[in-house]
Amino acid sequence: MIKPLRQDDAFLADISAARREPERLHLWWLGQSGFLVQWRGSHLLLDPYLSDSLTAKYAGTDKPHTRISERVVAPERLDFVEAVTSSHNHTDHLDPETLRPLAQVNPGLRLICARANVAEAARRSGLDESRIVGLDPDDDPVSTTVGPFEIGAVPAAHEDLARDASGHFCYVGFVVRAGPHRVYHAGDTMLYPGMEARLLRERVTIALLPINGRAPERRVAGNLGGREAAQLARNIHARVVVPCHYDLFAFNTASPEEFVAACQRLQQPHRVLRLGERLSWPPE
Question: How far apart are CA 253 and CA 277, in angstroms?
Fold first, then answer.
């Protein structure tokens, strides 16, 4: 099992230490596509999966979700969070066993998701729909504000730009604006026409991109591969790119080596985080 760099008490202590630098943006990788973002003492969770619900669900089936890394922290210990996102309805991005404990310990918690998925987000989280904000990339305006964070939605193609019966995108990414900083959380996505032009307008500081690629034999929808993630980051002029969506399940993972080699070849600044590790921006 992969052990996090910081876990449980040590992880929470690092969050407390980061509060002493409120003008820097801090983020921690929680595993898969989950991140915790801190800015000016406020906290936002991006697509957290902090349970073993999928391992239990698929136990004894022909598609076991065997965990290969330890959990960074239990969700009920994160009792200081203003908002949480869900980019789409797959359980590693919208997990009842993560969201319900979070809602219990954070009475004012807001959930931001794709507008197409509000009803499902309410069902899984247990939150009243009045506390759920549905965003669609075609909205005007396309963002909402929670504390010091402005959160906007952009399309994601997992594997395609799927829409619901009302024409709303089923898969989205998020652009989080925190003062001068812009964090692009891609959710699960592949490349699609117009993607780079749209993201260039956002002036991305930190790009959080999946690297597990597309492998039909896994029987799950595909994502960017390592080379694609590095090239996308370069093309949108991201100040730094962080890979994600690997090292959780044995059947659906990737090595960051291809990503790192591509970033080095492209001279794209990058940072490979260990589980529970912090990135602070701007760097010292």
Answer: 19
74 pLDDT band, cuts 50/70/90, is: very high
Indicate yes or no: pTM above 0.90: yes
Contact of 174 with 85, CB cutoff 8 Å = yes
CB of 171 closer than 8 Å to CB of 163: no
Write out the H or E segment, with its range, that includes residue 82.
Answer: none
Regarding the domain delimited by 9-281, which CATH topology (the fold level of the hierarchy) does it fall under? Metallo-beta-lactamase; Chain A (3.60.15)
Give the model confidence (pLDDT) of 181-205 as tens digits: 999 999 999 999 999 999 999 999 9
Q: How confident is the model at residue 214, as a pLDDT?
A: 84
